[in-house]
Amino acid sequence: MADPVPVITIDGPSGSGKGTISQLLARQLGYHFLDSGALYRLLALAALGRGLELEDEAAVATLARGLDVGFPPDGRILLDGALVGEELRTETTGNAASRVAALPTVRVALLERQRAFARVPGLVADGRDMGTVVFPAAPAKVFLTASAEARAERRYKQLKEKGFDPDMAELVEEIRTRDARDANRAVAPLRPAADALILDSTGLSIEAVLARALGFVRERISA
Ligand code: DC
Predict the structure, then answer these.
(1) Atom 5 of ligand 1 has which residue's CA nearest to it?
(2) 65 within a domain of the structure (yes/no)
(3) How does pLDDT run across 37-87, given as a tens digit for each residue?
(4) pTM for this structure?
(5) Is the pLDDT at 133 greater than 70, yes or no?
(6) How many domains does the chain have?
(7) How far apart are CA 146 and CA 216, in angstroms?
């Protein structure tokens, strides 16, 4: 019998297009959406706001357990009841998130919170370890990747559109550093699940990637 709450996991490095593809998939299927990176980003912002050292594992894990976040259906993101704006998506916050995400007890603290997003009719979960750790039994797993240069270029365009003034060389360097940290950490490193579809989006349009992902998901789930 089919799983009553099918979970589709979309993992991959930053800038691979995971966020866009996951949201489009969720919309198309009428599923809920988990942006697990946002949880790590919110945790990093909360830690910085409280003056914690990002490597202080015990303090950050305690904060993670009681983290007051909200993802109302209108798309707003709340931390301690207050709206979080563009600072959530900055490179500085992404890097801080990557640092707190390397702490094992912090990851454990966020595990059940992430699993609670799996509700009927289904969930699309976007992250680094959705298919390997958080939802290992998910029926459809995608690992979305792209070359570092292609990812830096996309990031460059996104940031420009948002009114930032990014430096391309710095972006490539930051992407490589973050990839290395995410892929080499001791717990839940960034890697595809054994049963994941590996999709390289370098040179592909969003529509082409979405079509392939959707085709795969429909094969795996009668959605
Ligand atoms: O997807 P993102 O760029 O918003 O994620 C920010 C950081 O959070 C990323 O560098 C690594 C970490 N992260 C993680 O370790 N595990 C996840 N499931 C999602 C994000």
Answers:
(1) 37
(2) yes
(3) 999 999 999 999 999 999 999 999 999 999 999 999 888 999 999 999 999
(4) 0.91
(5) yes
(6) 1
(7) 18
Question: What would the pLDDT profile of 142-182 be if each residue is shown by its tens digit?
Answer: 999 999 899 999 889 988 998 889 999 999 998 989 888 88
2 domain-assigned: no
CA distance 188 to 214: 26
- Please report whether residue 191 resides in a domain: yes
Q: How far is the CA of 101 from the centre of ligand 1 (A)?
A: 7
Range of the domain at 187: 7-222
Q: Any idea which residue has 């990093």 for tokens?
A: 44
State whether the beta carbon of 93 lies less than 6 angstroms from ligand 1.
Answer: no
Q: Which two tokens stand for residue 115?
A: 């699993």
Ligand 1 centroid, distance to 176 Cα (angstroms): 14
Q: How far is the centre of ligand 1, averaged over its atoms, from the C-alpha of 89 (Å)?
A: 11
Is 140 a domain residue? yes
CATH classification of the domain holding 108: 3.40.50.300
Query: Does the beta carbon of 182 sit less than 6 angstroms from any atom of ligand 1?
Result: yes
Cβ contact 37:190 at 8 Å: no
The reply to whether ligand 1 has any atom less than 6 angstroms from the CB of 135 is: no
Residue of 35, 98, 134 to test ligand 1 pocket, by largest number of atoms within 8 Å of CB = 98
Regarding the beta carbon of 107 and ligand 1, being less than 6 Å apart is answered: no
Q: How confident is the model at residue 3 (pLDDT cuts 50, 70, 90)?
A: low
Beta strands in 133-190 (DSSP E): 140-145
Beta bridge partners of 123: 7, 32
